[in-house]
Amino acid sequence: MLRSQTKLFALGKRQLCRSMSKSCDLTLVEVDDKTGIATLTMNKPPVNSCNLEMMRALKDSMKQIEGNKSRGIILTSSNNKVFSSGLDLNELRNPEQERLVAFWKELQEMWLTLYLSNLPTAAAINGHALAVGCVMASACEYRVMLPGFTIGIHATKFGYVVPPFIVNSYLSVLPRPVVERALLQGKIFSTDEAQQINLIDEVANSKEEALSKCASFIGSFAEANPVARALTKRQLRAEFARTLLDEPEAELKESLEYITSPLFQDSLDAYLAKLKSKNKK
Amino acid sequence: MLRSQTKLFALGKRQLCRSMSKSCDLTLVEVDDKTGIATLTMNKPPVNSCNLEMMRALKDSMKQIEGNKSRGIILTSSNNKVFSSGLDLNELRNPEQERLVAFWKELQEMWLTLYLSNLPTAAAINGHALAVGCVMASACEYRVMLPGFTIGIHATKFGYVVPPFIVNSYLSVLPRPVVERALLQGKIFSTDEAQQINLIDEVANSKEEALSKCASFIGSFAEANPVARALTKRQLRAEFARTLLDEPEAELKESLEYITSPLFQDSLDAYLAKLKSKNKK
Amino acid sequence: MLRSQTKLFALGKRQLCRSMSKSCDLTLVEVDDKTGIATLTMNKPPVNSCNLEMMRALKDSMKQIEGNKSRGIILTSSNNKVFSSGLDLNELRNPEQERLVAFWKELQEMWLTLYLSNLPTAAAINGHALAVGCVMASACEYRVMLPGFTIGIHATKFGYVVPPFIVNSYLSVLPRPVVERALLQGKIFSTDEAQQINLIDEVANSKEEALSKCASFIGSFAEANPVARALTKRQLRAEFARTLLDEPEAELKESLEYITSPLFQDSLDAYLAKLKSKNKK
What we know:
The structure is a homotrimer. By secondary structure, chain A is α/β, with parallel strands linked by helices. The first copy, chain A, has one domain (6-280): 2-enoyl-CoA Hydratase, Chain A, domain 1 (Alpha-Beta Complex). In chain A, 50% of the residues lie in helices and 17% in strands. Chain A contains 11 helices and 13 strands. In chain A, a hairpin with a 4-residue loop joins β2 and β3 (37-42). In chain A, α5 (164-171) packs antiparallel against α9 (226-246) and α9 crosses α10 (248-259). Chain A starts with 5 loop residues before the first strand and ends with a helix. Chains in contact: A-B, A-C, B-C. At the A-B interface, α9 of A face α7 and α12 of B.
């Protein structure tokens, strides 16, 4: 995709700025004039960890793309080693209640916006995709990954019990027995392993190739009526989004209770201490 | 299967005639005296498109076979190029309300009769199986296909949003991620592709061989108690037929609303115009 | 696993004895001091058929292991040809009502205890695993089998319609289309066939190797928080245990009605007569 073929989403960018406190750059949106495909780039240094602001930026960018008659969305990262490290664990550790509520609501809405997007969605996974990084990739319709990276939901390793909508992201891509084992082990897959179990669809040797393969996938819907496509997708996926569509407050309450429990807080502390001591060595 | 081994379903045929306006030949039923297996042949020129009368004939023939202590049903076509082209789009285009209601009810009942049949069911797919042609094959327990043909549900290509019972036919055979992508793309699979994803179970080189392989499959239930088999099948499949069993009227209403919407009518017009111009070239 | 590394579960054994009428040996529990993994051995001659007492012993042993801070459970058999032959058909043939109620409740509770165990569970299938023998293996998280044996649920062959929780054991391991066909045919798979469809995870050449592979699987959860693991497992499996968790009485009633029906009793008689005449030859 040549730069000259793309235009920066100027209006969108400005709208985005109003809704963010500090920076306009957490996400970047470019639309290819020729293909009509939007590339949504996660751009939060150092590792695209998802705090409240990042998830709001992602959600806003997706809504903006949908509103702008694009033909599809490719989700990728500006960091060439990390797609996303997952949720910002600082949001979960000893959280302030009001912030935690806002944070979790943004996660719910971001996920719904991506999972039920009217547009074809694809992830160009050009770096490690951990926890919510993997969830976002799984919520897309197609995944192309670069070799030498890892992908997976390792929540049980830091004492976290994933909520049903995250289980369902995995179930949208993988068979139930594979999902169960992967979640219980907190399994992180290499690019090769991910391809073997069809967690990813293709391997690409460069980000450019990954973007191009994602664009080809989006092109595979050329003959499909976009409205019929969107309604069919919603029908197929609504079952898996049921809790969040019908009872977001109940899911919020349950998640908050677990996150603020001593069980989880102690387990998170232990995990972070272990990571710290590993990094020192 | 030699002709001499089979007898025409004489009584059944006559019953069939009473329920049809013009012809007795939309479907043919032959029962093999030796194996007790009934072959149900779709016989509506030119391409076994499913209008109201064809679906009623199919349903009636299946009920007749079930009532006649046959050991299994093989669904096939008298046309050696087309298994079935799917619904007769004339029933859907600018439909007269009363006819549309009758048409849709017959589709619901025909599908339920096939999907929940007490008997082992197999499809000898001796030609293209498109849209409802593919749905009928998927509603059987086994599929044998001849090489060089195509099979799939391409509804999104003519702006149609398949109802849940059609999604469930696919889900009875294919994994969820494969179903989603196939339905959204309106993907038509070649015989080879269909075998790779297990949409079909076997490839046969002639219709005779296909019928023979279907008969072998039906023979695999020789040691199973037929009543226990039928009840187990119903238990497994009832979940996927739930809407049609419990709320056929609601499904009818929803389908009618969509079919008569300008959204669908315009999309269908555009599709038919495109087909016409393709055929002229 | 060397004998010297294991201790007999003395307290547990005594508790077990109180709850059983005749013998303390229906099940054996050994815990490896080093790994903390408990081996639960079925030990009811000649073929580990599951009568009321056997299922109670299995349930009690599992509860005892869970209460004793073990790190995982390996289910295996002391018989080197039969893992388990399934339910004791004497409990089903012309049953006395009170005994049948108690029997079925034990089956429900044994299954729930195993399927929803907080611990990692694995089956070292060192012999034929038929009917409920296969169900128990499928309710574990991992399966290693010795070559030359068979595994499957052949209920339709003796006229039995498996209840939903047994269907769900299979669905926890196999794709829906495979489950449907296997249950309807009453298919018994060889070790090789079972591996091809992923009904088992690995083949081992000796019981020792099977136990060791099961222990490795249980070791794969070393980095997972045990509480988060258990809660995640329960969340994933609760859907499939829903009927038994919420409405065990309804399931009991339905099962009893079917078991005591002439339809089933006649079919069971015919099956047993056939087995008898086969054995005579």
